[in-house]
Amino acid sequence: MKIAVLPGDGIGTEIVAQAIRVLDALDLPFEMETALVGGAAYEAHGHPLPDATLKLAKEADAVLFGAVGDWKYDKLDRPLRPEQAILGLRKNLGLFANFRPAICYEQLVDASSLKPELIAGLDILIIRELTGDIYFGQPRGRRTAVDGHFPGADEAFDTMRYSRPEVERIARVAFEAARKRSKRVTSVDKANVLETFQFWKDIVTEVGKEYPDVELDHMYVDNAAMQLVKAPKKFDVIVTGNMFGDILSDEAAMLTGSIGMLPSASLNASNQGLYEPSHGSAPDIAGKGVANPLATILSAAMMLRYSLNQEDAAQRIETAVKKVLAQGLRTPDIYSAGTTKVGTVEMGDAVLKALA
Ligand code: IPM
Ligand code: MG
């Protein structure tokens, strides 16, 4: 089992270090190799996704990814910015299916800004299409407008597009996932305005006929954003495009109180995957030893489950995480009165102890 370890920037190195300790403790035959990515790779090699890093990722069964980005790179040309590393990995590895669970842990219901009764027991799975849509659609760029409201003015444009096979395959991923849960899928679109998303809705409906045991409904993205804060527990599996999924998954993450708890998986057609916490590089707290490593540790669990076929080991990690929460240990992002505040390494220590 080959794992490419790409810690990246900011808190990335600190949280990935804890996940590695947990993986090591499982005593499974992993081969792990680390490489630079994001701003760290730009500093060392002049590019956020050096060829050697991409090659390592391609040859691995799974990639364990920390986070990339720092404000200091915001002025670089777009192709050199740290975010291009994650976009490049998604594209080059064909990681079209992004799983972002939003689970509210019983011990953390008070960490949410919503009323406890709205989010207690929350367990949503957002499935975001990850290699298409306006993120990757060509053409894009800047030019002089020849029509529109201001002909002759400078303008910028991106292209929102989806092909039939792209929508079919992500729809199937969602229906299959729903079969293993409560058999409900909500497809989120903007079919009332966008041609791309009327097409999306039509195709999801078609694919849905192959899954008569799964209940399918459709919701416009603006309404979905509203329902997520009004009655989040009404959702089970949400499937949506790349851009809507980006936005709704941050919203759903925050319902649970801390984005520091949420893992994610990005898979291609052969179940090769990239696993990363749903949060970013948090440069404001980097190097202070206070980042929550649990999202990364839980991402490692997802990696064991989806790409490495080690369900038992995945469950061992998830049980250990629940145990440390039950013990009352909290990093500052999930701290509340009456619990014990710990740092990144102490949290890692506690998970290791709970595993043993
Ligand atoms: C995410 C992030 C990325 C995205 C950025 C860093 C390119 O926000 O994974 O959700 O927009 O997909
Ligand atoms: Mg995002």
How would you describe this structure to a colleague?
- Homodimer.
- Catalyzes the oxidation of 3-carboxy-2-hydroxy-4-methylpentanoate (3-isopropylmalate) to 3-carboxy-4-methyl-2-oxopentanoate. The product decarboxylates to 4-methyl-2 oxopentanoate.
- It comes from Variovorax ginsengisoli.
- It catalyses: (2R,3S)-3-isopropylmalate + NAD(+) = 4-methyl-2-oxopentanoate + CO2 + NADH.
- Keywords: Amino-acid biosynthesis, Branched-chain amino acid biosynthesis, Cytoplasm, Leucine biosynthesis, Magnesium, Manganese, Metal-binding, NAD, Oxidoreductase.
- The chain has 2 domains: about 1-95 and about 270-355, Isopropylmalate Dehydrogenase; about 100-260, Isopropylmalate Dehydrogenase, CATH 3.40.718.
- Helix 1 (about 10-25) crosses helix 10.
- The chain has helices at about 10-25, 40-45, 50-60, 85-95, 115-120, 165-180, 195-210, 220-230, 240-255, 295-305, 310-325, 345-355, and strands at about 1-10, 30-35, 60-65, 95-105, 125-130, 140-145, 155, 185-190, 215-220, 235-240, 265, 275, 330, 340.
- The chain has a 10-stranded mixed sheet, with helices on both faces. Strands 6-7 form a two-stranded antiparallel ribbon. A two-stranded parallel sheet has the order 13-14.
- The protein is of the alpha/beta class.
- The chain is globular and about 65 Å long.
- It contains 12 helices and 14 strands.
- It is about 40% helix and about 20% strand.
- The structure holds 3-isopropylmalic acid and magnesium ion.
- 3-isopropylmalic acid (IPM) binds near residues 83, 86, 87 and 246.
